[in-house]
């Protein structure tokens, strides 16, 4: 069909009251519904990208500065369990210590417990994190300033606490240094394989 897009401004510019069952009233309802739907989608995208940015920044801050990359998958799981998932434990203990028995549980304590439980469940089921086993990826992550628009540059993998062997690349990363490092790793793997055969 197509045609001119009807907006609230174009409808309200027409004079006179609107009958509740009129065509114009239905058009206004559709416009309101579309606007609300778009605003909700925008809000959900922002919340999702904010939580992703917060996760990446937390991982990079927690990663020891002398470590250029994570050497293997076992170390990566150990790092996630001991550092990333435990990063709120001090705050949790502090809030719990301030909470008096018999009093209602404060909202910050409830929210923190829910967040910790959600992160642990996500880790068990499979969590998307930046590839910390790729040296080039870690280097560009350390230089990153938290810009959401730069997320496409990084290489992401999915790991799971219930399946410690899972290591699935979910995003290749468009940064040229990542592509170069992947090619170097492949060349090294081929060279080692040929050395073992020969």
TrEMBL record:
Residues 1-28 are annotated as: Disordered. GO terms for cellular component: nucleus. InterPro entries: Tma16 (IPR021346), Tma16_sf (IPR038356). Pfam families: Tma16. Belongs to the TMA16 family. This is Translation machinery-associated protein 16.
């Amino acid at each position: 069909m197509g045609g001119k897009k009807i907006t609230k401004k174009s409808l309200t510019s027409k004079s006179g009251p609107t009958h509740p069952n009129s065509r114009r009233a239905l058009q206004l309802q559709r416009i309101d519904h579309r606007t609300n739907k778009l605003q909700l989608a925008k809000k959900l995208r922002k919340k999702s990208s904010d939580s992703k940015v917060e996760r990446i920044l937390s991982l990079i801050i927690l990663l020891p500065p002398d470590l250029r990359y994570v050497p293997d998958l076992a170390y990566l799981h150990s790092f996630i369990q001991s550092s990333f998932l435990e990063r709120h434990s001090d705050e949790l203990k502090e809030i719990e210590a301030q909470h008096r028995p018999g009093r209602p549980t404060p909202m910050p304590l409830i929210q923190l417990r829910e967040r910790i439980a959600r992160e642990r469940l996500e880790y068990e089921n499979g969590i998307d994190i930046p590839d910390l086993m790729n040296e080039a990826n870690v280097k560009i992550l350390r230089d990153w300033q938290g810009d959401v628009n730069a997320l496409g540059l990084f290489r992401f993998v999915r790991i799971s606490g219930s399946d410690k062997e899972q290591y699935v690349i979910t995003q290749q990363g468009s940064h040229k240094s990542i592509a170069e490092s992947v090619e170097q790793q492949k060349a090294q793997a081929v060279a080692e394989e040929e050395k073992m055969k020969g």
